[in-house]
Write a structure and sequence with these properties.
The chain is α+β, with helices and mostly antiparallel strands and 132 residues long. It contains 2 helices and 6 strands; from the N terminus they run αβββαβββ. Strand 2 and strand 3 form a beta hairpin. It starts with 5 loop residues before the first helix and ends with a strand. The mean pLDDT is 90.
Length: 132
């Protein structure tokens, strides 16, 4: 089960990216203006991502995350030179996380000027992963 809290989800992404073909380097960014951040080098380009979480309605930070598993999300694989958020969504989707309901790619929105994604979990929580 993937924990949906920002630090746990960031650590999940680090492990996932370390095992992804074409990724040259992955590191956690501990200090800096963006908490729960990571850096990944793909195709010779470094990209930095920050994870922000949103609890399910009525949930509290001092309680455990409710485990809910179901069908993994539909996804579309994207090449490393595609929009960075589309690529990352494809990496997450290919891992077939059973606790993930769907993934929304921000650059595919109308006037999609921001790069990032929203991961919607079956238990109502969300992770926002934005390119910084």
């Amino acid at each position: 089960m993937i924990k949906m809290r920002p630090v746990e989800y960031r650590d999940y992404l680090v492990d996932l990216l370390k095992n992804t073909p074409g990724v040259q380097n992955v590191d956690v960014i501990e200090n800096g203006p963006h908490p729960f951040a990571l850096t990944a080098t793909v195709g010779g380009r470094e990209r930095r991502w920050q994870v922000i979480g949103q609890l399910a309605e009525g949930a509290k930070h001092d309680t455990d995350t409710t485990e809910v598993t179901a069908t993994p999300p539909a996804y579309q694989a994207a090449a490393a030179d595609a929009a960075p958020d589309a690529w990352l969504a494809g990496v997450i989707g290919a891992a077939e996380p059973a606790d993930t309901d769907r993934i929304e790619v921000w650059s595919s929105r109308e006037k999609g000027q921001q790069h990032g994604l929203t991961v919607f979990f079956h238990n109502g929580e969300r992770a926002f992963v934005r390119l910084i």
